[in-house]
Amino acid sequence: MKKVWLRGVACLCVLLSCTRVESDEAGEREICFRGNVLELQQVNLFGSRAGLGSGDKVQLYIVEQDEEGLKLPASEDFYQMSSDTDGNVNFEDGEKHVYPNNPINIYGFCCRGMEGNPVDLSNVPVRVEGEQKSEDALLRSDFLYVKSEGRHRATDDAISLDFSHQFVKLQFHFRTDTPETVDLGQITALEVLNVVREGNFDVTTGELTLGDAVDDIRAQPANESMVIVLPQKVKGGDVLFRFVQSGKERSYSVPAAGMSLEKGKLYKCDILINQYPGAGDKDVVISTRVEDWDESEPPIYIAFEDGQNVVATLTGVSNGVVVNRADLYLSSENKVHEKLNIPVIDNKMEFMFPREKEGGTLQLNKAHFYTEAGDEFDYYFKDKELLGDNLDELFLVAPKVGDIWGDGVIFAVGEVTGYDENTSSFVTDVKGVNAYRGRMVSNKALGKLAWCKSGAKGEKVSVGANDENNGKTNMVALGNFIKINSDELENYPAFMACADLGKGWYFPAYNEIRCIVANKDMLNVKIEKQLGDPISLVELYGSSTEKGGEPTHYIGPDKIGKTVYPYTKMSSAKVRAVRAY
User: Fold this and answer.
1) What PROSITE patterns does its record include (predicted)?
2) What does the pLDDT look like over 446-463, one tens digit per residue?
């Protein structure tokens, strides 16, 4: 049995270090704890921070484990802690509690407003507030729980109690691109609808059982608002939340597959409200965007936009490609627009057309398409104006060598499968979605750069960049070499200059620069002509590929496929960046 001595007040410290205190009884000592309750209960909703307040309770069950089998907590293992104004948590009975060296297991929870030892630890009633318009209401709705994963023994170190959130927080952030027509200060109501607010918690297992009744939760109507709910599955098609802005009610319904609200997760809802002038027929279109956020479920991106619903048709789609979803990247004279996750049915897509003025048009710069087979690809447009009149057509004909594509020019169409030495061009597969894949060379010339600087770790040894067809593979090999050898990318100027152009750009492999030079006229890329017969007067183009420890340079444009020596890794050569599309 556990022994208790009156030795003054023992402090259960939260977020502070604690030390062991030996008792007068041989082999028995006081066990101290540290926890993260204060950190978890801090809220920053209305400009202040609120943690544990005076009188808040922490229910802790310290179970002496004097036998092999796991022993679950009972009423006699209960200790109620009371927090003070400084945030420390003390045994409420004012006694010092000393335990023998038998191992202990720890169970506990913190829930504002709940005091004393529950009658049935396997069925503790829990709930969230129906009105959550203040910090205090949010904290009363929170439920923190701790359960030791293994047995603890008295040591010189304090036992760390890592409480975790058992419920779910929804965070709403409202914004607008049209402040002249949308006043976010006029959000007068915000509610989470038809959710279960009550349940029973099993302290011994950490499992929650939901009740049957559903109710609404009213939140603080503001640009930034938060609500705590019980973890649960929301049925597909149900309205998750509603709000009123400038007298107009808006609501969000979850997708048909439903939506899981998982315990210990924060769901960020980024809500964009736009109202475009002179848009003709009005309609409300709701779209969602999925993004990762820490370890939680993805946040939700929701757009409520008043505008004209239009239909655009995809034509010339490559054989075997079925598009079922699209992201459009558009621009007007003053703004950039993204229309995401647009459903595509029978090559037709319906979306909200955000006109800034009556009769206004939009420039379509790029689209990202998702196929029924699970593939996806980018498609770039040049001088494509959308009128928004339901007659717009997007021609998705497969691009060809020489087409302007994003920030470059295509030099290989299709998925690369090899290199043809006779024609100095890549062999590619252009069936199905591969018709929309290939490689492009940057419009931007990067000047003369060295493969590496003197003193770089890879100056005199191979870094493993031996791929002749794919410079991206060589970039990865260099990255691994740099990491293993504590080197820096700055020591490899040609690689760094290509990477600095942005995501996906790389220093081309030997056959890639050969192909570009061989097709220079078709690509309309400025490739300097040979200056004379002597090799010393020839324009030299660099590649990322190593051979025999040195980079495999390329002489262009006439001496096809010739490796140049005595050029070394420190010799300067002209650089063109490449990217797969």
Assistant:
1) PROKAR_LIPOPROTEIN
2) 999 999 999 999 999 999
Inter-residue contact 96 to 10 (CB < 8 Å): yes
Angle at 252 between CA 342 and CA 211, to 5 degrees: 130
How far apart CA 182 and CA 276 sit, in angstroms, is: 9
Maximum separation of any 2 CA atoms in the chain, in Å: 100
State both tokens at 494: 């040609």
For the chain, the distance separating the N- and C-terminal CA atoms, rounded to the nearest angstrom, is 71
Find, among 417, 411, 418, the residue nearest to 434 by Cα.
Answer: 417
| CA 370 and chain centroid, separation | 19
Q: 271 near 172, Cβ under 8 Å?
A: yes
- Would you place residue 292 in the very low, low, confident or very high pLDDT band (cuts 50, 70, 90)? very low
Question: For residue 521, what are its two tokens?
Answer: 């006229």
Cβ contact 41:52 at 8 Å: yes
The residues, ordered by sequence, that sit 6+ positions from 69 with a Cβ below 8 Å of its Cβ are none
Query: What are the beta bridge partners of residue 420?
Result: 425
Answering whether pTM is above 0.85, one says no
Rounded to an integer, the average pLDDT of 201-229 is 94
Q: What is the DSSP letter of 43?
A: B
Whether the pLDDT of residue 565 is over 70: the answer is no
Interior angle at CA 436, CA 435 and CA 437, nearest 5: 95
DSSP code, position 224: E
Region for residue 390 given its phi and psi (left: phi exceeds 0; alpha: psi -120 to 50; beta: otherwise): left
In angstroms, the CA 413 to CA 522 distance is: 13
Sign of the torsion formed by the C-alpha atoms of 48, 51, 54 and 56: positive
Tell the residue number behind the tokens 């030795």, with chain if given.
7
CA angle in degrees (0–180, nearest 5) for 340-341-344:
120
